[in-house]
Amino acid sequence: MTTTTTTPDQGPATTTGAVPTVTGAFPTVGEQLAHVGSLVRAARQHRGLTQAQLAERLGTSQSAVHRIEQGAQNVSFDMLTRIGAALDSPIVTLGAPQHTHLRVHGGLQLSGRLDVNTSKNGAVALLCASLLNRGTTRLRNVARIVEVDRIVDVLRSIGVRATWSTDGRDLEIVAPRRLDLGGIDADAARRTRSIIMFLGPLLGLEDTFELPYAGGCDLGTRTVEPHMIALRPFGLSVTATAGNYHAVVTDPGRRDLTVVLTERGDTVTENAIMAAARRDGVTTIRNASPNYMVQDLCFYLELLGVRVDGIGTTTLRVHGLPEIDADVEYSVSEDPVEAMSLLTAGIVTGSEITVGRVPIEFMEIELATLAEMGLRYTLSEEYAARNGRTRLVDVTVHPSELRAPIDKIHPLPFPGLNIDNLPFFAVIAACATGETLIHDWVYEGRAIHLTDLTRLGADVRLADAHRLFVSGPTRWSGAEVSCPPALRPAVVILLAMLAAKGTSVLRNVDIIARGYEQLQERLVELGAHIETFRD
Ligand SMILES: CC(=O)N[C@H]1[C@@H](OP(=O)(O)OP(=O)(O)OC[C@H]2O[C@@H](n3ccc(=O)[nH]c3=O)[C@H](O)[C@@H]2O)O[C@H](CO)[C@@H](O)[C@@H]1O
Ligand SMILES: C=C(OP(=O)(O)O)C(=O)O
Fold first, then answer.
1. Most buried residue, 83, 131, 139, 427, by CB count within 10 Å?
2. Which ranges in 232-281 belong to alpha helices (H)?
3. Ligand 1 centroid to 154 CA: how many Å?
4. Domain HTH cro/C1-type, which positions (predicted)?
5. If you average pLDDT over residues 97-121, what whole number do you get?
6. For the chain, first and last CA: distance in Å?
7. Rounded to 5°, angle at Cα 100 from 17 and 112
8. Could you count the other beta carbons within 10 Å of the beta carbon of residue 59?
9. Taking CA 269 as the corner, what is the angle to CA 263 and CA 271, rounded to the nearest 5 degrees?
10. What is the ipTM of this complex?
11. Which of 146, 417, 420, 492 has most ligand 2 atoms within 8 Å of CB, for mutation?
């Protein structure tokens, strides 16, 4: 693997803003370019990125970034917007903040093949777990999504060296002997819920530390109490004040521990596993989630020399190592939720498309449910993912007459219908004949966002915040909709727009980049007509 070799050149924190008003003569083009260049440089340094790292995020060369910062290159508005997105900070603001919108010309059949990318949830767990390793971790095929960028920003801010390969696919991570937790990028941390997964690795490294509160999508209240309960047996106690968790760690006084999780949650399981990994002893974790991201984490830990018994089951035994120092390379596994998203694009447009590299163990119940709804699909032979462990297939969906299922559709912790795949059944049910009950018992607020489907002609009624009745088939019609502030519902509305004849506009779609890499561009590869525009 070739990697860029530069290290972050930290500079003074400077804020970005509008191109300044200049008194006297109107500034020349050269003066304006120089000013824009200095804004880009300041925003980049504020993020702790090198020119090479920003260039990677933009898909351009380091010398191009250098010229922009010197004011020696004309910069298009499009490029400025991309720089703003890459740095999570708008460079030029004229009036209201700039957002990205999509114009969708729907009602077209799609065709062709798309491969599933690696998962957001696996990547963030592995990034947090890399804190456990003194050696070099190479994560291969990491999804280039905003959620990953945020955790990478947080890691860099505490002194971790995180370097993208020149092709931008692999990430090399080396944690320092001593983390600089005082320097943590609280802004990036507060934008992601995954920051909560720093607790597990950190409690084996520090006696006291502080972390900013976890944030994330608007899905209603999401408690972190199960994490506190799970980590208490490891000696962690946490108080929360003034936007921060204050953590104190004491020795639990026993070598071997048994931890019983009160919820079979994914990140809570990952936290318990990471806390167990650096202990000199065996930790038994009961009611563990066996879901895909947890498996990714366990496969990585095994490479580090940490034995984990029971991977893929609800009882894990983690044989911890007090010192972990290994140079390892791990390929993140494919994302079942992206698989579901892409398959839904084919299903709701009545198309024949092939979705390659589907992690079938994590899609079986979804496909069985779709078969009950009349979906015709074919599966290829199984083959191994790059991690050598996850089983993949290619799934081809064929145009089908869909009918509502007799029973309600509801999610469960794995093995069950994936909670993050449930929203896609709303748009699929809207294409089916009859009434479907979708029961999202999990999130307090996610189902509510799906009522935006009515804007496109669907008959979607909330019985309460958790139960959604969807009656179809829908005569879809184009409409303008503001993107819901939640990742999966946002994609569901976009996919409904692909089904709707005529032109639709989805406003402010920035949230989609949190979990999907170039989704609209990849849908265009299948024949979708989607244009991106800005205010
Ligand atoms: C980074 C990451 O990996 N995120 C995933 C992870 O988030 P994460 O692990 O953070 O999920 P939460 O802990 O927020 O759990 C999601 C919801 O499920 C409820 N719950 C969960 C398990 C259980 O046995 N009982 C129960 O009631 C929780 O109270 C909460 O309301 O898991 C969620 C549920 O699969 C997924 O939507 C997220 O994409
Ligand atoms: C809810 C989700 O993720 P997160 O835990 O990152 O908010 C999701 O991926 O749909």
1. 427
2. 266-277
3. 22
4. 40-94
5. 95
6. 40
7. 145
8. 10
9. 125
10. 0.98
11. 420
Q: State the CB neighbour count (10 A cutoff) for residue 2.
A: 8
Q: 351-383: per-residue pLDDT in tens?
A: 999 999 999 999 999 999 999 999 999 999 999
Residue closest by Cα to atom 36 of ligand 1 = 420
Q: Whose CA is nearest to atom 15 of ligand 1?
A: 265
Considering Cα of 477, then 483, then 484, then 490, what sign does the dihedral take?
Answer: positive
Q: Looking at the chain, how many residues does it have?
A: 535
Residue nearest to atom 25 of ligand 1 (CA): 263
Report how far residue 140's alpha carbon sits from residue 121's, in angstroms, rounded to the nearest whole number.
Answer: 15
Q: Is 130 helix (H, G, I), strand (E, B) or coil?
A: helix
Closest CA to 438 of 287, 30, 275, 446: 446
> Which is the closest atom of ligand 1 to the Cα of 265?
22
| C-alpha pair distances (Å), 322 with each of 134, 277, 428, 481 | 11, 8, 49, 52
Atom of ligand 1 nearest to the CA of 268: 9
Residues 328-339 have pLDDT tens digits of: 999 999 999 999
Q: For a substitution probing ligand 2, which of 118, 148, 149, 219 has the most ligand atoms within 8 Å of its CB?
A: 219
Q: How far is the CA of 417 from the centre of ligand 1 (A)?
A: 13
What's the rounded Cα separation, in Å, for the pair 451 and 468?
Answer: 8
At residue 68, φ and ψ (nearest 5 deg) are -60, -45
Q: Which domains does the chain have, with CATH numbers?
A: 1-95 (1.10.260.40), 102-117+334-534 (3.65.10.10), 120-331 (3.65.10.10)
Mutation to probe ligand 1, out of 120, 412, 419 (largest number of atoms < 8 A from CB): 419
Torsion of CA 308, 310, 316, 319, to 10 degrees: -20
How many CA atoms within 13 Å lie on the side-chain side of 52? Answer: 14
- For helices 120-129 and 266-277, give the axis angle rounded to 10 degrees: 20
Q: Are 91 and 36 in contact (CB under 8 A)?
A: yes
Bin 368: left if φ > 0, else alpha if -120 < ψ < 50, else beta: alpha
User: Could you tell me the maximum CA-CA distance found in the chain, to the nearest angstrom?
Assistant: 74
Closest residue to atom 10 of ligand 1, CA basis? 267
Q: Which protein residue has the closest C-alpha to ligand 1 atom 4? A: 121
Determine which residue's CA is closest to atom 6 belonging to ligand 1. 266
The model's pTM is: 0.86
